[in-house]
Description:
CATH architecture: Orthogonal Bundle
Shape: globular
Structural class: mainly alpha
Distance between the termini: 22 Å
Strand order of the largest sheet: 1-2
CATH topology: Arc Repressor Mutant, subunit A
Number of strands: 2
CATH superfamily: Winged helix-like DNA-binding domain superfamily/Winged helix DNA-binding domain
Number of domains: 1
Radius of gyration: 12 Å
CATH class: Mainly Alpha
Amino acid sequence: MKEVAERIRKYLDKDKTGIRKELLLILLQGRKYTTSEIHEILRSKGYEINQKGVSAMIGIIGSRIGIIKSEPGEKKRYYLKNEYSELVREIVEANI
């Protein structure tokens, strides 16, 4: 768990615009999202990003940090693993 916390902190340290923190806040809501839905939410909050950029961020969070899972279907849906939600919440709130 300590390694995961360090990876999340490093990921957020490189967040120049706040978009990474915003993505984690979206995932903390406990829903399952497609990359299209996440893209729409981020754009509605004023972030300039394309859908490929959202997919890249999801990929990094899933593969390097390991805190999200995907649910197969017509379109993959992504969600935060339950065991990491409190850890992510603490780290994100500390970076506000």
